[in-house]
Design brief:
There is one protein chain. This protein has one domain: Methane Monooxygenase Hydroxylase, Chain G, domain 1, CATH 1.20.58. The chain is about 60% helix and about 0% strand. The chain has eleven helices and no strands. The longest helix is centred in the C-terminal third of the chain and has 31 residues. It is flat, with a radius of gyration of 27 Å.
Length: about 260
């Protein structure tokens, strides 16, 4: 008897992964929601975090809450990827660090974009909503503050590697072909610094547009404090090295001015 004849008519020895009487759309994760999508993302809880229509002081309040809550989620994701990037820099895995920073920037860019949604509010619409904010202020954003707390540690990881290589910031840029991967990390740190400044700038302009620039915010602090903070940079050495490089080039080419062209 052949092997084919021996197995003919016998049931398969393996069992299907999903019972035949179960539809693939039937949820298998723990929870009470109708689908695994809802159970995994906990959408019942997530979508219950906004005020109901009867609780809103103004029809625009749902948009106001959704924008801020979405921003906090994006900033949380940004901070998580930057923390992973910091760890990668510390181990010398610069390729992975750059990839993680690029991912974080995509989320941070979306948080910046959301600020422009808030610009669709008029001053009177905002002031109706503002009455229910208490002392709430964007300056107290836990997501944005987490980026500010992470930034110095991210910088320490980078400058630690720079010290380990025995080179200065200027030498890193001058010898970038030799230290290409670390040079790319430096540029990504500058990208992060620039985005933080952009976030602060657009937040400042949003405040000016909605409540004015010469008034007190919800926390009792002057709105002008936003301008003061916007001028702060995270990685001063990475910005100042540009001046050093330009001064070196100017001295070499006998150009006396600092800029793009010669003085007339």
């Amino acid at each position: 008897m052949t092997r084919k004849q021996q197995t003919k008519g016998k049931p398969p020895t393996h069992q299907p992964l999903v019972p035949q009487n179960r539809e693939m759309t039937e949820p298998i994760l723990a929870g009470t929601a109708a689908t695994d999508y809802e159970r995994y993302l906990r959408t019942d809880e997530l979508l219950a975090l906004q005020k109901s229509p009867e609780q809103r002081s103004h029809p625009d309040e749902l948009m106001f809450q959704v924008v801020h809550q979405a921003s906090e989620l994006l900033l949380k994701g940004t901070a998580n990827e930057l923390e992973r990037s910091r760890e990668a820099i510390g181990t010398g895995d610069y390729v992975r660090a750059v990839k993680l920073m690029d991912r974080s920037f995509r989320m941070l860019d979306r948080a910046i974009d959301l600020l422009h949604v808030l610009e669709t509010l008029t001053p009177y619409e905002y002031h109706i909503i503002r009455a229910g904010l208490g002392h709430g202020s964007g300056l107290d954003s836990p997501g944005f503050l987490s980026l500010l707390h992470l930034a110095p540690r991210l910088g320490q990881a980078f400058f630690g590697q720079l010290d380990g290589a025995g080179i200065s910031v200027e030498q890193l840029y001058r010898r970038n072909n030799e230290f290409l991967a670390l040079h790319e990390v430096a540029e990504k740190l500058l990208d992060f610094d620039e985005r933080v400044q952009l976030f602060r700038f657009h937040h400042m302009k949003l405040a000016h547009r909605i409540i004015g620039g010469d008034v007190l915010g919800t926390t009792g602090r002057p709105v002008d404090i936003l301008r003061q903070r916007q001028e702060h940079v995270l990685y001063k050495e990475l910005w100042e090295v540009r001046n050093e490089i330009t001064a070196r080039v100017n001295a070499k080419t006998r150009m006396q001015d600092q800029g793009h062209g010669r003085s007339g």
